[in-house]
Amino acid sequence: MKHAFFHNVTIMTGASSGIGRELAIQLSRQHAFLSLVARREAQLNEVAEECERAGGECLVIPLDITSQDNCQEIISRTVRRFGKIDTLINNAGISMHSKVEDVQNLEIYRSIMQVNFFGGLWCTYFSLPYLKETQGRIVAISSYAGLFPSPFASGYSASKHAMVGFLNSLRVELDGTGVSVTIVHPGWVKSGISSRSFDARGNSLNHTLDHEKNAMSLDECAARIIDAAEKRKRQEVFGSIGKLGLWLRTLAPKLVDEESMRELK
Ligand SMILES: NC(=O)c1ccc[n+]([C@@H]2O[C@H](COP(=O)([O-])OP(=O)(O)OC[C@H]3O[C@@H](n4cnc5c(N)ncnc54)[C@H](OP(=O)(O)O)[C@@H]3O)[C@@H](O)[C@H]2O)c1
After folding, report:
1. Of 142, 148, 191, which is best to mutate to test ligand 1, by the most ligand atoms within 8 angstroms of its C-beta?
2. Of these four, 35, 121, 205, 256, which has the most CB atoms within 10 Å of its CB?
């Protein structure tokens, strides 16, 4: 299928950097109409300029998705501006890097759940009536952490598993409506997310973890997400290690545990 996003109205959470920014630019080449959502307004304005140069049309919505009211406002502002919603991309996310027993500020668990799980849930809930009108798409950026153990990222992994459980259930409820739910599970992607992760005290980690340095490029990651969304795939697991892991977690779970630990050494 070519140009599924031509003049498609897409809400992109987490559009101010990384994967969300790159997705927005690539979708703009298909002349998409985009609501760009994140907290940092200056960065969103820069992304909007780039998108418009690439052929897109943008509405910048500088709101924090940890507020339910904000999520409702994101949906209503999008409909007021563009008249409909074709696609919601739940991309905004934050992470952590600490062993459970070393965590000194338990609020990091709540913060991660509020962005990665509740923010996505609320945006999904409020956009549902509009997505049913257009037989639209819900796309969520999960992670290997949404499928496998993630040592040093227990809260992140919990939030991604929660999102996956919610969206897999919703997919069944939406059967017959024409709305598709696509969950994407990338491995490491070179976005700088690790340096923005919470450390044990709840501060920003402020350095890039080694395994992010050799990770997939943003360009390739975004292209693969768009392809999966265009084809309305149920789920897309990136890389042969991820695909193999799906089998191994049933057949040899200890091996998956060991591999997840080795990843971080
Ligand atoms: N990079 C990886 O290795 C990797 C691998 C697998 C999955 N992922 C997932 O991919 C998604 C994008 O991550 P990324 O790697 O592109 O990281 P990133 O560059 O740090 O992007 C995260 C985005 O989320 C936004 N965000 C964070 N908190 C928010 C809030 N409360 N309200 C609204 N927006 C918020 C950030 O914008 P503001 O700070 O401006 O609000 C930013 O635009 C995440 O869900 C992540 O879990 C990443």
Report:
1. 191
2. 35
pLDDT in tens, the chain (265 residues): 457 888 899 999 999 999 999 999 999 999 999 999 999 999 999 999 999 999 999 999 999 999 999 999 999 999 999 999 999 999 999 999 999 999 999 999 999 999 999 999 999 999 999 999 999 999 999 999 999 999 999 999 999 999 999 999 999 999 999 999 999 999 999 998 988 999 999 999 988 887 777 799 999 999 999 999 999 999 999 999 999 999 999 999 999 999 888 766 5
- Tell the CATH topology of 9-263: Rossmann fold (3.40.50)
User: In whole angstroms, what separates CA 219 from the centre of its chain?
Assistant: 15
Atom 47 (ligand 1) nearest CA: 93
Tell me, yes or no, if the pTM score tops 0.85: yes
What residue's CA is closest to ligand 1, atom 25?
A: 14
Q: Domain locations in the chain?
A: 9-263
In short, whether 93's Cβ falls inside 6 Å of ligand 1 is yes
| Nearest-CA residue for atom 20 of ligand 1 | 193
